[in-house]
Amino acid sequence: MGAEVIKVERPGVGDDTRHWGPPFVGGESCYYLSINRNKKSVSVDLTKPEGKDLIYDLVKRSDVFVENFTPNKMNSMGFGYDVLKEINPRIVYCSISGFGARGPDRKKPGYDLVASGIGGLMSITGPEDGDPCVVGVSITDIMTGMYAHGAILAALYERVSSGVGKKIDASLLQSQVAFLSHIAANYLNVGHVGKRHGTAHGTIVPYQAFNTGDEHDIVVAAANNKHFQNMCKAIGLTQLATDRRYLTNPKRVVNRETLIKTIQAKLSEAPSKYWLDILHDAGVPCGRVNTIGEVFDDPQVYDLDMVLKIPHPTAGQVVVPGPAVDYNGTSILVPPLHPPLRGEHTLEVLEDILEYDKNKIQELLEIGIIEDGTDLKFK
Hints:
Layout: E1 5-9, E2 24-25, E3 28-29, H1 30-34, E4 39-44, H2 49-60, E5 64-67, H3 73-77, H4 81-87, E6 92-97, H5 112-118, H6 139-162, E7 167-171, H7 172-178, H8 181-190, E8 207-210, E9 218-221, H9 225-234, H10 238-241, H11 249-254, H12 256-267, H13 272-281, E10 286-288, H14 292-295, H15 299-303, E11 307-312, E12 316-321, H16 346-353, H17 358-366, E13 370-371
Parallel strand pairs: 1-4, 5-6, 6-7
Antiparallel strand pairs: 2-3, 4-13, 8-9, 9-10, 11-12
Helix pairs in contact: 6-7
């Protein structure tokens, strides 16, 4: 969105995700490359007074401060909200933790896996008669980032009128519980405990994946009566559209076993493309279950600019998924920056933003407070 984002990393080590591999490209893990474009990296020793002063100087010039330590860790390091708001009353301070700022578990470390277990997601994910499963990407991490992102933008908007910043607390557990959505409402209102349904939906039928007559599965989302009736006519099961057991979605949910068995038998008679063509023509939401490779061969994905190629100093080029939204018809507001090498922008930030003189910068380099990342390039 055009923000200048400065990532502060530990000298010599950096972000943990740099080491989450293989696979690696140009000395960086693909995991790290996937989530760090459009950031600048400054490598600073936060345990030393000179390092702390450097961060304080950055805070004076910043709109937002984001930290991901356990609650109160920043206070002990000298970077708590009460300290930083004295330096810059307009700062929007966002803390992201595993379990939140209050409660008996607030000091525990947390990862996506832990939150998805404690927060119930694993209990509703996976085959009906199988073990609990995690989602294939760190969805709780991502959703926490999105909730924090929305809160930060709201605080910046409110600051226009109030003139002061806000302290925001976000956590993996809060995010996980919040996006339990209708599963939570089912339990809280009528005591219905959600369970695993494989690819199926607990309260919409048919809304799941089906095998076809070739190696490709398809998904069919007949979310209302019209979709269901059109589906039945399209696939040659007209009798189901008038069967009293299936006239409404509640009835289809109750009688899902016989209905799904009948639909599955029919869809096994022909290849996936045949069914997708006639279902699309009938206006029934559907699609093929793609492999990851097939996703990025999809012309619709390509036309949405979801494949982003970025020049990189050690890899030559890295390729990552593109932005999820467009503005005025384009998804790229500014030329994308490659995911930074550790400390790659230390000197740039100190010179151009903090306006430190060369003698001070050289001194910080010599005593090991900062790392400039020069020796990491072009290896």
